Amino acid sequence: MIQRLVKRALCALLGVACLALSASCETNNPEQQIETVRIGVATYRSDDTFITALCDDLERVSKQMESETGKKIILNIADGKNSQSNQNDQVDNFISRSYDVICVNMVDRTVAAVIIDKAKRADIPVVFFNREPVEEDIRMWDRAYYVGTDAKESGIMQGQIILNALKKDAGIDKNGDGKLQYVMLEGEQAHQDSLIRTEYSVKTITAGGVQMEKLANDTANWQRSLGTAKMTSWLDQFGDEIEVVLSNNDDMALGAIDALKAQDMLENGPVVVGVDGTLAALEAIQNGEMLGSVVNDAQLQAQAMLDIACALTEGSDPQQVVEGMNGQYVRAPHRIVTKENVGQEIAYLTQSE
Ligand code: BGC
Ligand code: CA
Questions:
Q1: Which of 138, 225, 321, 338 is deepest in the core (most CB within 10 A)?
Q2: Which residue ranges form the domains of the chain, and what is each CATH number?
Q3: Which range (8-12, 21-25, 307-311) has the least confidence?
């Protein structure tokens, strides 16, 4: 009995002490007054060069926004390791921690409805990025958004790089048969950017009056080492017949250049174009190894994602306040980069480092 009383008294005392402590925290600790935005970011895999750049930009831009707005932005970036079930678990985890906003770079972009359902039930807005869900899924909820680019535009610009180069140097058609013999390095088969870049790069060149002859095409899954492997086997098969290498991204283009270098075929070899404008690609353009690329602006995309997140946590409608938003979509414009303007693009990319 006495023991129980002592216990109760102790508990009561402890309770009072706790209350006093928390009250003093509220009044004295400025940390409590700072508005905190917690964002969960689920990437399809973290070893993808473009996604790495985009995540670095998210970190950097969020720091900038912290100092501009006085808010605290907490980013939790998860690696899906190319498994949709991993990614679903990561999203569940963000939801169970009541994050303010969830950003998802779908492993399998055809199953976004599952994520939207979960987010909607928890009433946590979701921003998809880079791997575009079908429009029907985005339309399921007015607090689902997509930040990316217009894939068609990148394909068209890739084609324009070839057309412009051919005007200045007819020697790109090495055998002078009036056609461009080309190989196509494709990204993942199910990625919107692979299918559309492939289609529109070639369409643009032929619409410009230049005939194209495809020697080979295959996927190298966006990866540099797989790009090297593919290009090596095509060089064995076609030797110096290849006049143009069209690549759905820069990493695979750089892989093709690695293969050309290994066989001492870079000089007087085919012209190579990619997409992304990664730093490694810009350097290859600067030193003449690569003809050009199309900038896939990760900084703009990171900024748009964070603008949406901040608007949502302030209770405003992103569609009213976020720059470049069109309905539930933000598409960052692309830019052509070749030797002529590469210095400018390197400066843009490294300005903030
Ligand atoms: C980029 C690729 C990247 C892919 C990942 C594309 O938009 O161009 O470099 O691997 O997205 O989803
Ligand atoms: Ca030719």
A1: 138
A2: 32-149+297-322 (3.40.50.2300), 152-295 (3.40.50.2300)
A3: 21-25
Paired tokens of 46 = 């973290």
Asked if residue 130 has its Cβ within 6 Å of ligand 1, the reply is yes
- Model confidence, pTM: 0.90
What is the residue type of 166? L
pLDDT single digits (tens) 85-129: 999 999 999 999 999 999 999 999 999 999 999 999 999 999 999
| Average pLDDT over every residue of 343-352 | 92
275 lines ligand 1 (CB under 6 A): yes
Q: In what order do the strands lie in the sheet with 325-326?
A: 72-79, 36-43, 101-104, 126-129, 144-149, 329-332, 325-326
- What pLDDT digit, counting tens, does each position of 26-39 carry? 344 555 578 999 99
Give CA angle at 219 (217, 221), nearest 5°. Answer: 155
Residue nearest to atom 10 of ligand 1 (CA): 222
What letter represents residue 347's amino acid? A
Q: Please say whether the beta carbons of 128 and 116 come within 8 A.
A: no
